[in-house]
Amino acid sequence: MPCGPRFLNNTDRKRIIMRIFAIGDVVSANGCEFLRSRLPAFKKVKGVDFCIVNGENSAVGNGITPFSAEYLFDSGADFITTGNHAFRRKEMYEYFDSNARVIRPANFSSAAPGRGFSQVDLGFTCVTVINLSGRVYMDSCDNPFDAADRILSGIDGKVIMVDFHAEATAEKGALARYLDGRVSAVFGTHTHVQTNDAAILPGGTGFITDLGMTGAADSILGVKPELSVNWMRTGMPTRFDAADGPCRMDGCLFDIDNKTGLCTAVEPVSIE
Predict the structure, then answer these.
(1) Residues pairing with 179 in the sheet
(2) Measured CA angle at 95 (ends 27, 150), to 5 deg
(3) Which residues pair with 26 in a beta bridge?
(4) Residue 125: half-sphere exposure toward Cβ, Cα within 13 Å
(5) 4 against 180, higher pLDDT
(6) Which of 150, 178, 196, 218 has the fewest CB atoms lying closer than 10 Å?
(7) What phi-psi label fits residue 63: left (phi over 0), alpha (psi between -120 and 50 degrees) or beta?
(8) What residue ranges do the domains of the chain occupy?
C-alpha cells in the first residue's frame, strides 16, 4: 500500500515536523460534548496536524455507534481507533467496513468487520495508524507482536502511529520496546488513567503507557463511583452508567519528523 510523502509543486507545504495529538478513551455523551468544547481551539493553538481519538466507549451505554463516531469527526477528530468494545453495537459493523478512518484492533479475527490499520494521505505526508489489542487480562485475540510485524512488512510511509489497547502496563511497554525505531509512536489506551512516563525511547519512538480518558473527572474510569464500588464489593451484575459533572480531556502530543518518521518531542496533555 504505497503512501509516501507527496509534493505536487513548489507552493506545497514542505513541513519537516508534524504534530499529532492522540486522545484517550472518550466516555459517553458528556465525554463527547466536552471534547467538542475543547478540541477545536486546542488544535489551533497547538498547531495540531492530525488528531487520533479512541472512541470505543463514545456511545451512551457502551461501545461506539455511527452517530458517536460522526460526532467525534465533526468535533475535530481526524481518525478513530477502538478496542475490546468495538463490536458492542451491531449498527457499527457496516460503518467499520465503509469508513477507513475508523479501525478496530488488527489482531482480532479476520472474520470481524472493518480493518486493523489504515493510511491517510495528508498531501505533505502520509500517516499510518495501527490499532492492536493486548492479551493479558483481555479477551482472546491473536499475538499483537506478530500482527504488528505483518502490517509493517506490507506498508511504506514513515509516520506510523500505534494505539495499543491493553490492560497490562508491562505488555504495553514490551510492545513499545519491540517496535522502537520502526514506528513513530506507541500510545496505550483502555485503562483510562494517564501515566506519568511519556518518553522518547532509545530508537526514536515516542511512548506513553496510557493516554487517559475523556469524560467525567469525578468518576471511576468515567463511571459513577457508587456503581463501580457496588460491583466490586458485591460481585452482582451492575449497569455502568457514565458519571456526571465536570470533565477532562487526556491525551498526548507527538512531534514527528516526516523524513525519518521518528519522534522528536512528547507532551502529555490533560485539559479540564
Answers:
(1) none
(2) 90
(3) 214
(4) 21
(5) 180
(6) 196
(7) left
(8) 17-267
Q: Does domain 17-267 have CATH number 3.40.50.2000?
A: no
Residue holding cell 514506528?
183
Closest among 210, 152, 156, 154 to 180, alpha carbons compared? 152
Task: Please report which confidence band the pLDDT of residue 228 belongs to, taking 50, 70 and 90 as the band edges.
Answer: confident
What is the C-alpha to C-alpha distance for residues 247 and 105, in angstroms, rounded to an integer? Answer: 27
* 44 CB-contact burial (10 Å; exposed 0-12 / middle 13-18 / buried 19+): exposed
**DSSP at 236:** -
Q: Identify the residue with better confidence: 2 or 68.
A: 68
Please give the Cα distance from 263 to 159 (Å, whole number): 9
* Rounded Cα distance, 84 and 58, in Å: 13
- pTM score, two decimals? 0.92
Residue 54 contacts residue 83 (beta carbons within 8 Å): yes
State the pairing for strand pair 25-26/213-216.
parallel
Report the catalytic residues: 85
Helix (H) or strand (E) holding 118, with range, is strand 117-121
CB atoms within 10 A of CB 162: 29
Can you read off the three cell numbers belonging to residue 118?
Answer: 489504515
71 φ, ψ (degrees, to nearest 5): -60, -45
